[in-house]
Amino acid sequence: MMASLALSSLPTSTTTKKPFFSKTSSHVKPFHRFKVSCNAPANKNDKTVNNSDTPKLILPKTSHEMQNVDRRNLLLGLGGLYGAANLTTIPSAFGIPIAAPDNISDCVAATSNLRNSKDAIRGLACCPPVLSTNKPTDYVLPLNPVIRVRPAAQKATADYIAKYQQAIQAMKDLPEDHPHSWKQQGKIHCAYCNGGYNQEQSGYPNLQLQIHNSWLFFPFHRWYLYFYEKILGKLINDPTFALPYWNWDNPTGMVIPAMFEQNSKTNSLFDPLRDARHLPPSIFDVEYAGADTGATCIDQIAINLSSMYRQMVTNSTDTKRFFGGEFVAGNDPLASEFNVAGTIEAGVHTAAHRWVGNSRMANSEDMGNFYSAGYDPLFYVHHANVDRMWQIWKDIDKKAHKDPTSGDWLNASYVFYDENENLVRVYNRDCVDINRMGYDYERSAIPWIRSRPTAHAKGANVAAKSAGIVQKVEDIVFPLKLNKIVKVLVKRPATNRTKEEKEKANELLFLNGITFDAERFLKIDVFVNDVDDGVQTTAADSEFAGSFAQLPHNHGDKMFMKSGAAFGITELLEDIEAEGDESVVVTLVPRTGCDEVTIGEIKIQLVPIA
């Protein structure tokens, strides 16, 4: 059973406050949880830069209690490809963990690995400069560090913003070949995340090292931000300087922070390569699929909160679901079906990248592509909140939500230049405690914890009405092409399960063997027993099981990859009153980049709870 949470206490150790909401979210249509003025300033604090482009949302009074979140209802979700028998028991690969090369300057340029390489305006050479031929030394975290507190960007004061702009400008003023320069910091993401390195350090020189779509995603980016932050502090002689975080999981922070768009000619935080359609006061779409939905401000907030609940609660009950699939030495990131992104990576992380990146650019620069994302200051602030989600996830359920314990994860390592220009090797095992790393997050309420989706249509008997009309999964010839909307009738392993049975196993919908072109942005939405009544079903509705999404990986022209996804449906079936149905109708909606996508298997299984 999950402990009752004080919403405002996560992720910091700040004294517990009152919960944000008094009861579970209602459907998006009658959503009255926020009293919203989408054109009002974000903060009346006279030390904060006010800007009418950043909306203020006036939030309701809180209740004194929060309902317990029942552990049995926290379901496995997006990010799984394992059968019932081995979902929680797949062993780590034999051999040594993934390790970045000692010589990080020896990497492959992105020349042939970019879909529109001739239009790659940020340059195709991602390798860092050569400062020394010495091997990197193992990095040792400072003892008893002064804690740097990362502020929510929408709450930042004028003094803080000035200091932050000064630090970024100092980084941009460095010679381009300096390891701390703006360009070199941007290249780090290109090199590690665009196929620049191989697994030679681990004994597999012919296999690529890939950070994304695996359990390396969170720790790598934590270390990346750690040194980036310390470098900025050193440039302004302030060891207490901390990055802000883009608080997109809170209604007051669901717009691009105003500090990034003000005074474009003199503002070092400004990047011209952002989608002009999504500048303040536009509300971020957590489920962004490449096109704007036209949702109202209030409806979009409701959708976002329900989506965050699904990604952080319903679909993130165990380590594999949250972190993603195991990736160890000897695995091929292009061919392995275990290349599965965790819930946050495949969800809000990917959505923000595409929502901010300029869709009119050939490669959606900057944020919309791995090779160029690090050139936008907003990238680091976005990933600071992604990192915050890791900490919050652990705080939600300290007993069940654990970091990976396999030696293949703990001993995986990366190489960076630290703030003193020393080449250092860092390990996952040393980044699991943010206070030991010397930073924490300013407290911000997490209203999504109370935003469980609600049914679009209860007791609709969709499966029974679809018999003879919708094809049964056992009659489908796989692989199934997904170039159009697909509906399939899938048999369930059990009906009307008791409370005790639900405490022993979760019911999961699996999409296995998803094959796709890694060069394209991809998004598939998944629905269960969706009613075709002319009213659009959104992420605020229980029938929406979740999404499978991928940023362009740019491994080469038409480079196909395999992956998979799993979605928890126990809560979903409860909400729509379909627990007694022997089968359900699964609807797969290709949103973008799905012309050549195929699905290898669709099934529902009961997966024992460890």
UniProtKB/TrEMBL annotation:
Q: Could you tell me which PROSITE patterns the record lists for this protein? A: TYROSINASE_1, TYROSINASE_2
Q: How is the cofactor bound?
A: Binds 2 copper ions per subunit.
Q: Name one GO molecular function term.
A: catechol oxidase activity
> Which residues are in coiled coils?
none
Instruction: Provide the disulphide bond pattern.
Output: C107-C127, C126-C190
So where does Cu cation B get bound?
Answer: H349, H353, H383
Where is the 2'-(S-cysteinyl)-histidine (Cys-His) crosslink found in the sequence?
Answer: C193-H212
Q: Which domain of life is it from?
A: Eukaryota
Q: Which cofactor does it need?
A: Cu(2+)
Q: Which family does it belong to?
A: Belongs to the tyrosinase family.
- What is this protein called in UniProt? Tyrosinase copper-binding domain-containing protein
Q: What is the protein's species of origin?
A: Lactuca virosa
